[in-house]
Please model this.
Amino acid sequence: MRQVAIIGAGMIPFGRRDEDSLLDMLAYASLNALDDAGMGKKGVDAVYVANMGAGILQHQTSVASALVDRLSLIPAAADAVENGPASGASAIKNGVLAVASGYYDYVLVAGGEKMREIVGWKATDFVATMTHPEVEYPYGVTLPGMAGMFTRLYMEKYNLTRDQLIAVAIKNQKMGALNPYAHVEMIITREGIVDDPDSVVNNPMAADPLHLYDMCPVSDGAAAVVLCSLEMAKKISKKPPVLVAGFGQATDTHTLQERDDPTDLKAVTLASNQAFEMAKLTPKDVDFAELHDAFTILEIAESEHAGFFKKGEGGKAVEKGETSLGGKFPINMSGGLKARGHPVGATGVAQVVDVVFQLRHELGKDRQVKGAKTGFTLNFGGFGNNVVAFVLRRAE
Amino acid sequence: MTDELKITAYRCKKCGRIHYPFHDRCLDCLERDFEEIKPEGDAKLLAFTEIYNLPWGFDVRTLKIGVVEFSNHIKAMGQIQIDDFNKLKTGMKLKTFWEPVRVQAGEDVFGLVLR
Ligand SMILES: [Zn+2]
Model:
């Protein structure tokens, strides 16, 4: 297998983008990535498009064929990848395999989602379609609802506190405010969302025990990367190529109730371990991570299940500032899903884009992890029933 | 009361693992022979939440959702109907009913209700 590198990364600001169609967003992000890679008028061999909901939300299918048409990348091979909120990382994994095999030399991976044009309850219902159609969905359970149940169990088992969840929200919104691509650019304080009497109004309960500020927003957005072999990347890339050192993907039962221990996110551990093994590295070798904090609880639980902290220690680490910029293991310096936003099909690609920016040392002092050499991403599908992880390294 | 619940779980004839929902092969031993079983006895609350942002099809302000385990170890999700959410505690026993849980295309959809 060939070693695979990322030579181009691009995205567009996430948020509410009423003026853009899903295809507009995918095209803009793709052009940013192709330009970043210096591809000029050079074509690619294949395009993978990550998207979860165009069939439901836009009444549009075959988005990958539509994107190659928009970009005049014809006759490149084109496939759409739907793996719920982990579609983005799944699509990149497929692109990496295609280049690693030697079959394709240049691959574009784009992820996008347009979710804001529908009303809130429809968006909630759309996301809930990934729950079990017979034994979960009919009851009205939502992904926030699953996260609420999980959070209470985690609190009971590991003494996780609400203060620790709040610390995740405050940290990530602070970083989001510094990220020009982030959906939410508002700094929040403990006073504002907890102590103030108005906090019951501005930070209401959403899925007990989780509050509004424990949730990521519903966003429009797109992100893209360009892949080629490391050998080729070293010859043509003007920017430091980023090596896809390792990846992993694992699944778990569809329902939480069929897991022996519902607080054990086995697929997170398995996917992470696979990625570390392939990279011949351990969690200790990683400088920073972009984790899937669709809910504040997930950042903490994933940081533990991926091996960066012991079980029960991840929450304390956030409170002590260990996961902030300058701490021993910065997490979500992009603002995470919490602030960057969560256009579901785009998220896994955006996480990788943010790690590429970090590894190329392109960010301002207020977000750049000093001397970053190795980063990690975790894209979490369903409620942990399909998880994809990457270990990425700056290639010197 | 549990007789009325239209819940069918599947016990692996080889290793005894209980499945709900159905799987074509046992999660543990991959055998394909199952015995159909029904929930028996009390329902013990394992996990719960109250949801404030509801999807389409619900004519209520919030939904209380829980996962219970019956005496014969079938685990199932249901809607909790209790006035005071704060009275819910992990491990408590709840009574079970098979009643409408939502409306879809103008029709009642029945499911597990916990009180
Ligand atoms: Zn079995």
User: Anything to note?
Assistant: Residues 21 and 61 of chain B are 28 Å apart (CA to CA). The pocket of zinc ion is lined by residues B 12, 14-15, 17, 26, 28-29, 31 (CB under 6 Å).
